[in-house]
Design brief:
Layout (H helix, E strand, L loop, with lengths): L2 H9 L10 E2 L6 E2 L7 H28 L2 H8 L5 H13 L2 H13 L4 H21 L5 H22 L11 E6 L7 H12 L3 E4 L5 H10 L4 E5 L6 H14 L6 E5 L1 H5 L3 H4 L4 E3 L2 H14 L5
Parallel strand pairs: 3-4, 3-5, 5-6, 6-7
Antiparallel strand pairs: 1-2
Length: 300
């Protein structure tokens, strides 16, 4: 059905059904010949027209003029949007981190939660920095400086993610690392903060090679290992690393969770590399880690 036919079919111009009801040309509602209406139906039709034409518009107008306090609060407590992300990226690239930090504080003063700041502001800013590098809008040094400042912002928020040691439960210990050869570390640093807040004992280190990851897994007990991969070119490396972790791990039932930009677009790659789950952000990572912990009996 082309665009020219859509409006005609929606309003029903020129059509008539078998009961003698035809469609009106203005509102897409049907009208019945007056002779076929009872007196009560006529009164009802008039009432409907009065409600639609007079009462509802007045209610809408009065609601706009009243501006209830609770509605104003909802508007003020909005989360970060695309304009906020663009401004933060600009500040990260051209100003000291203190300026970017002050801007984050401004967004929080609008009522944005810690989760909103991390998931809807910091994470998209990191992705935008990566995009600008890939599109040659920024050079390597600019992006590196921007990401360093972004890490500083995350460290400033870290105390708000911390929990009392007494709240940590059982063997909920997770190792987080990037896929060997990857340099994108901000995303997994963000995931670490969410897991800590959920009571997990998080080991988050920059392990540059498979050998280093295997050494840590062999020396320490983890219920879950989380790996981040940035590009599809590292998928084979990730797959082999996961196999090696399962062989070397002190926990023979260790769960494997994977994440990263490529897995957001292609979540099916998680099964291909032999992982138990994937997550698109820090909040989902907590849920997936808990599911792995429960399903694999990692507490035993």
């Amino acid at each position: 059905m082309g665009n020219g036919d859509f409006s005609k079919e929606w309003t029903g111009e020129g059509n008539e059904d078998e009961r003698g009801c035809e469609f009106s040309d203005d509102a897409g509602s049907f009208k019945t010949p007056p002779s076929a209406l009872s007196e009560s139906q006529v009164r009802m039709a008039r009432l409907i027209r009065t409600i639609e034409g007079e009462i509802v518009p007045r209610l809408v107008l009065s609601r706009r003029e009243a501006k209830p306090v609770e509605m104003v609060r909802v508007r003020q407590a909005r989360g970060p949007d695309g304009a906020d992300v663009a401004e933060l990226v600009r500040l990260l690239l051209h100003h000291d981190v203190s300026v970017a930090s002050a801007y984050v504080d401004t967004v929080r003063q609008r009522g944005a939660s810690l989760e909103m700041i991390c998931l809807d502001l910091l994470a998209p800013a990191a992705r935008e920095l990566g995009n600008r590098w890939e599109e040659d809008e920024c050079d390597f040094m600019q992006v590196t400086v921007g990401l360093c400042r972004l890490h500083q912002l995350l460290r400033e928020l870290s105390p708000e993610f911390s929990v009392d040691e007494s709240e940590r439960t059982g063997n909920r210990r997770i190792l987080l690392a990037t896929c060997p050869g990857d340099q994108h570390t901000f995303g997994i640093a963000l995931v670490a903060q969410f897991l800590r807040r959920a009571g997990w004992d998080v080991w988050h280190e920059f392990l540059a090679s498979s050998a280093e990851i295997l050494d840590v897994c062999g020396q320490h007990w983890f219920s879950v290992v989380g790996l981040s991969v940035a590009t599809e070119t590292r998928i084979d490396v990730l797959k082999e690393t996961i196999r090696a972790i399962r062989r070397a791990s002190r926990n023979r039932g260790v769960g494997i969770m994977v994440g990263g930009p490529i897995l957001i677009d292609k979540p099916e790659l998680a099964a291909l590399v032999g992982a138990d789950a994937t997550a698109v952000d820090g909040q989902q990572a907590v849920t997936r880690a808990e599911q792995i912990f429960t399903s694999l009996g990692a507490a035993h």
